Amino acid sequence: MNYFKVLLKLTKKAYKKNEVPIAALIVYNNKVISKSYNKRHNHHDVLGHAEILAIKKASKKLRTWHLTGCDLYVTMEPCSMCKSVINEAKIDNVYYFLKNNKIKQFKTKYKYVDIKDNYIFKEKIQSFFKNKR
Fold first, then answer.
1. Where in the sequence numbering do the catalytic residues fall?
2. Which residues contact 18 (CB under 8 A, 6 or more apart)?
């Protein structure tokens, strides 16, 4: 299958729907198992990036969020949010056709809250993973 043609068709669809024309597809065992395009604006969804939507579909189809053995094809280099999700999904390879030169200026400030009871959260997390092993 020609992945470029599939991506082109999806970007045209996104463009017609007034979405940023970025598309993604996931391949497993040389077969496309999921595909999507940006749906952020029409769905009012900050997570509506093509890569994330394709990952969600692939995870549902394979019944796991571990997408080892999968490759992602995307029309533009993923943003930092999508790169984090791709990494968490354990996707093997990402192939993209355009570089993303957009520089983000982050306005959100992260502040650590240090109180004496923080250990309770740590105990819960440790207990959860201890029970999983």
1. 51
2. 41, 42
Report yes or no: 57 and 73 within 8 Å, Cβ to Cβ.
no
Which pTM was predicted? 0.85
Residue appearing with tokens 């999507």? 36
- Is it the case that residue 1 has pLDDT exceeding 70? no
| C-alpha distances in Å from residue 57, one per residue of 15, 36, 51, 102, 114 | 21, 9, 10, 27, 38
Which H, E and C letters describe 28-54, residue by residue?
ECCEEEEEEECCCCCCCCCCCCHHHHH
Cα 128 to chain center, whole Å?
25
CA 84/CA 78 separation, integer angstroms: 9
Residue type present at position 125: I
